[in-house]
Write a structure and sequence with these properties.
Distance between the termini: 66 Å
Largest sheet: 6 strands, mixed
Oligomer: single chain
Number of strands: 6
Strand content: 25-35%
Structural class: alpha+beta
Number of helices: 5
Mean pLDDT: 79
Strand order of the largest sheet: 1-4-3-2-6-5
Radius of gyration: 23 Å
């Protein structure tokens, strides 16, 4: 009886600690950037995986959030670009020659906007509400890359596909295998 009570107390303490950790992780993931924020805009051809609320990061530090993603249509009603609005901490100076790219944030495919400042350049900061004029770097789509291999896979037999897959896995893991020997 005593052992059952002690086990119940241990389970309750463990559950409470796990709930506290879950709340802390969720709070860290959804926290807004600190300080006053300004809104800026950029255009991309491909925003695959980017969502409203995703981070804007500079040197790995959260400095803003994606505020809105809107599809822009040309005069002939074709989709031409995606307009992304994002916030940025006011004390961060966003300049016309800085670059903005959509990057992977983690292994599960979550994305973020990565702001890279061009060093050693004298450039005027953009005013809040401005649109970045330089081309932004679009999202990298792994499925499009793999779909490009489909014609190659169709000409190979199962053993060759397995050997190719194993060679690619070794190359991605950093083993001393060359891509030419894999192909």
């Amino acid at each position: 009886m005593k052992s059952m009570k002690a086990t119940s107390i241990k389970i309750a303490v463990f559950a409470a600690v796990m709930i506290l950790l879950l709340v802390l992780v969720l709070q860290a993931l959804t926290r807004p950037p600190q300080g006053d924020l300004d809104t800026f805009h950029a255009e991309f051809k491909d925003v695959s995986g980017l969502k409203v609320g995703d981070d804007v990061r500079m040197l790995g530090v959260q400095v803003g959030k994606v505020k809105d993603i809107a599809v822009k249509q040309s005069s002939d009603h074709r989709i031409s670009n995606a307009a992304v609005s994002f916030t940025l901490q006011r004390d961060r100076k966003f300049r016309a020659d800085d670059t903005l790219a959509i990057r992977y944030q983690n292994l599960i495919g979550q994305r973020h906007l990565n702001l890279t400042l061009v060093p050693d350049r004298e450039s005027t900061p953009l005013d809040p509400g401005s649109t970045l004029e330089l081309p932004s770097e679009d999202s990298f789509d792994v499925s499009r890359l793999l779909a490009g291999f489909q014609p190659v896979f169709e000409t190979l037999d199962a053993d060759q596909v397995n050997a190719l897959s194993l060679g690619l896995i070794k190359a991605f893991q950093g083993d001393d295998v060359s891509l030419s020997s894999t192909v």
